[in-house]
Amino acid sequence: VAGDGEKEALPHCNLQVYTYTCDVGKRENVYSTAERVQKEVGEVSVLVNNAGVVSGHHLLECPDELIERTMMVNCHAHFWTTKAFLPKMLEMNHGHIVTVASSLGLFSTAGVEDYCASKFGAVGFHESLSHELKAAEKDGIKTTLVCPYLVDTGMFRGCRIRKEIEPFLPPLKPEYCVKQAMRAILTDQPMICTPRLMYMVTFMKSILPFEAVVCMYRFLGADKCMYPFIAQRKQATNNNEAKNGI
Q1: What reaction(s) does this enzyme catalyze (predicted)?
Q2: 20 annotated active-site
């Protein structure tokens, strides 16, 4: 963007965009869509795994099928998409695999067990895959792990930390997260956490005893930060049930 509120003119390019509808939680759907992409568009050199869902229920109140959906979309889908597109990357020794995880894939909080487990799984998958590519000496295939803090997309609407801390850790704008992620991808950065404070929280969690981590969470108000979000989801569900019953 140029100065004085004027947008910088982009060079004219004859670009063609293809879109496909795919349920990434179903491996047959992923594989069939991948075949269509390779046939109609060509080989994929950049794979971004970004799909994510959350149940919004406490563990004992969460239907089993919602837990399974969270794991399938947030974690298992990474296996299917990677298996679909990695072979050609290996053949060409060229490509980039981007895993959009979450800060909740590095440290957890109460009430969103399904989401945390799925994001921890995605992080573990990404790290193991990165090591495998290095061991195979496929240096032309890059990997980037993206772990943002709460993003203002409405997915976790109602999530609140301690009010005195909120001004220092506001929800992130999606555009900012995309910009940071793109910068990391274009510079082959292995991992990006936004904001940078997340690096410190992850480091503290790795060196402090568990009880000290609990104290830190309570000080930040992060121990029950998802409770207002879950309460809102429950209220919305009850309202929908009431409306459907009328």
Answers
A1: all-trans-retinol + NADP(+) = all-trans-retinal + NADPH + H(+)
A2: no
